[in-house]
Structures are given as structure tokens and as C-alpha cells.
Amino acid sequence: MASQRIPFLILSLLLLISLSSVAEAAYSSGKLQPSDCKPKCTYRCSATSHKKPCMFFCLKCCAKCLCVPPGTYGNKQVCPCYNNWKTKEGGPKCP
């Protein structure tokens, strides 16, 4: 009985890995078109009380990286360029 489960588990694991790769690729650098930046940044900055600076920097980061992390906060690891762009002081440039 256990020997019949091994192929099923292996196939399930391979399916899970391939689906996670597809999801990651959807947000990886270079997948957005420049015209996609404004709606993505509008959502990204929707929960902040500092909308103007958030939009300014988000649009700047999106234009360079062609990626905006999902959600209104965090998730920057999904967009390495967006995550790694720093200010002169070493803080995060992108919201």
C-alpha cells in the first residue's frame, strides 16, 4: 500500500513545484509593461496616508524594475530589483 503512494507523492510534489514557479514568474522582474505601473502602484499605495510620495517612488521603482510586489505592504522579496534598490542612506527606496 505504501509503495503505491510514493509515485503519487512524487507527482504531487512536482506539480506543487511547477505551480509555485509559475506564480513566482508572474511577479518576477521584467514581467510588467510600463503601462501596468500606475494601476499596480495605485493599489500598492492605497493603504498609506502618504499617497503622493508613495506613488512617486513606486512609479519610479516600477519604471526601473518593471515589477511591483503584490499587496499594499511587504512581499518585496517577490521583486528583487524593487527590494534591493536603496537610498544613499541605505534604506529602502521603493515602498
Description:
By secondary structure, the protein is mainly α. It has one domain (2-84). It has helices at residues 2-27, 37-44, 51-65, 80-84.
What are the key terms here?
Protein RSI-1, mainly alpha, 4 helices, gibberellin signaling pathway, single chain, 95 residues, 57% helix
Number of strands: 0
Rg to the nearest angstrom? 18 Å
3D shape: elongated
- Sheet-strand content, in percent, reads under 5%
**Helix proportion:** 55-70%
User: Which segments are poorly predicted (pLDDT under 50) over 5 or more consecutive residues?
Assistant: 21-29
Major sheet: none
Treating each run of at least 4 consecutive H or I residues as one helix, how many helices? 4
- Distance from N terminus to C terminus (CA atoms, Å) equals 52 Å
Number of structurally distinct domains? 1
| SSE succession | HHHH
Helix and strand content put the structural class at mainly alpha
Mean pLDDT across all residues, rounded?
Answer: 84
Protein name: Protein RSI-1
Signal peptide: 1-25
Family: Belongs to the GASA family.
GO biological process, one term: gibberellic acid mediated signaling pathway
SSE layout and pairings?
Elements: H1 2-27, H2 37-44, H3 51-65, H4 80-84
Helix pairs in contact: 2-3
Q: What's a quick, concise take on this entry?
A:
With 95 residues, the protein is mainly alpha-helical. Helices cover 57% and strands 0% of the residues.
